[in-house]
Each structure stands twice: as C-alpha cells, then as structure tokens.
Amino acid sequence: MKRIWIVLIMLFAVIGLCCYEFIFSNSLIVQTENKLSEANNAAQENNINKAYSICEGIYNNWRNHQKTMNIFYYHDSVENVGQSIALMSEYAKYKDYVHFYAENKKIGEQLSVLKSAELPSIDNIL
Amino acid sequence: MIISVIRTFLLYIMIILAVRIMGKRQISELQTSELVVTLLISDIAAIPMQNTSQPLVSGLIPIFILIFCEVVLSVIMMSSSKFRGFVCGKPLIVIEDGRIDQKEMKRLRMSTEDLSEQLRQLDVFSLSDVQYAIVETNGKMSVLKKPEKLQPTNEQLNVTPPNTGIEAVVINNGTISDQSLVLCELDRDFIKKILLNENIKQEDVFIMTANRTRQYQIIKKG
Questions:
Q1: Cα dihedral A28, A34, A35, A39 in deg (nearest 10)
Q2: Is the pLDDT of residue B27 over 60?
C-alpha cells in the first residue's frame, strides 16, 4: 500500500508540474506575442524608438524567464527565440525596417511552434 | 560536460529509486510488464544524459509515469488473476505425467535441445526422470521429478538433523553487525568473549560467522 501512495504522490507531482509548465509557458508566449505585435504596430506607425523600447522590454522579459523555460523546453529552441529577439532589437535600434519585420515574423513563428508543441492535441501526440 | 556528469548522477539516483519503488521483483526474474518497463527506463534515461540541450524533466517525467504504471499494474494483477493472465500469460506444462506435450512446445517455440538444456540446469539429466515440467510466466522452468527419482527427505528417513538456524556474518571487516546478531540470537558480549578467547582484536577480523548453536568461524585479515 505504501508503494501505491508513493506512486500516486509522484503522479500528482508530475501532473502538477505539467500544468504549471503549460500555464507558465503559455502566458509567457502570449505576453511575448502581444508585445511583438505592439512593436510591429509601432514600427508601422514610424515610431521606431517606441518599437525599440518594446523590443528591449521583450528581450529582458524573455531572458528573465529563460531559466524556467529551459526546464521544460529544448534549450536550443528557447535560446533561438532569445537570440532572435536580441537581433530584432538591434534592427530597431539601427532603423533597419526590412530585417526588423522579418525577425518579428520569425519570432512569431518560433513562439507559435513552442506553444503548439505543448498542446495535448492528436497530431502532437502522434 | 559538467552538466552531463551532474545529469548522470541525478538519473542514476532516479533509476535506483525507481527500481526500489517497483520492488524486489524487478531485480530478479522479470515478468513481461517488468521487462518492458526496465528496458524503457534504461533507454529513456540515456537520452537526457547525453543530450544536454534536452530538458532533464523530459527524461524524468516518463520514468515517473512508467513507475506509476508498473506499480498500479502489479496491484491490479495481485487482485485479479484474469488480468494477471492477460498481462503475464499462464504457466505452460511441457511435460505432463512423463509425456512431452509437443503442441505446447511448438507454441513456446521451444526445441528439444532447449528443453534438455533447461532440465540440465535443474540437475535433471534424463527426460525419463521428469513427471512434470512447467514453463513459468517469467520463462523459467519448474520440474517435479517422478516419485521414484526423488531424494528421500529426513522426515521420510526418520532422521532429525540439528537445527543450527541460519549462519550469519556477525563481523564484517572489523565491524559487528547488530542485525546479524539478532538473526542468530547472539549478543555483543558473546562475540567479545570469543575474540578474547581466540586472542584476536575485533579490527583484525576479516569475517566472522556464527549461528544459533553458537558455532562460529573466524577469518583474520591477511
């Protein structure tokens, strides 16, 4: 009976961890996506300075949460997003609109892959 | 590289814990489900050990889930023999009343050489000695010899051998084992008295065994 209790506690801990991971990563990704579209809008309104400060905010926020994200995701995927955000920020700083939009789109795709990879859907399971 | 070292230690501890939780059955003869779990755990643990970019939890979570499945499965099997039969199969009789059941041997894909080999491992060197041979669910063979080929027991011979109990290692490398003393109903004073009589210091003893009838054997360190 002791073993059953141990494995049940383990199962609940695992389920708890999975739920935390899902909620945590989902909220961070959604938050980053919103900020990305905010930066994109600012750039389209020719307010590149605002876009740059938003990018810096996204970068700092991502870096602050990177350690936790690394616990759950492949480190390369998390690192790639961080690098792309840093790059986008630099493009905004030097007013390189073409690369800024491209990088913005790329980060959006990377985040969407990260987000959808954790959804318990049939295609992900298979 | 240091990450690999730390991860290996963590996963090693995790696997030992896993095997401990799954119980003693896991380290002796494996049933079907136990074999599957053992193979999977060793395989799953190896991946995050080598690939440091993979999160450690992606290796640990499947191990936890497998332990859970294994323990739950064994509890269900304990209460339902039908379910146990479904998961582990049933023991198969390959020799019944001295006759080989060729049909069962075909089902088991067991050749006569395999049968003879397994019988030899059980100290049976002639097929004619066997009354029953059963292939258990873990793949091991159990044999019942014909009555005329069985060795007589002390009871049948009306002999009463002395009950010496279990012989336990009471001193191992100079250290007294209290657990062994309890097992053979002895105490530390008895051991000290023996060592005094034999004129040996406790720390010079490599191994000392004793039993309930106070018979002992001492091997000194070389």
A1: 150
A2: no
Interface with A, mutate which of B4, B44, B65, B78 (most A CBs under 10 A): B65
Tell which of B86, B111, B136 closes a domain.
Answer: B86
The β-bridge relationship of strands B168-172 and B92-96 is unpaired
Give me the phi and psi of B135, to 5 degrees please.
-90, 115
Q: Running DSSP on this structure, what letter comes out for residue A91?
A: H
In this prediction the ipTM stands at 0.72
End-of-domain residue from the set B64, B86, B108:
B86
The residues near A19 (Cβ < 8 Å, ≥ 6 apart) are none
Which residues make Cβ contacts (< 8 Å) with residue A77, sequence separation at least 6? A110, A113, A114
Query: Number of structural domains, chain B?
Result: 3
Give the residue with greater pLDDT, B88 vs A112.
A112
B29 vs B33: CA distance, rounded Å: 12
Min Cα separation B196/chain A (Å): 45
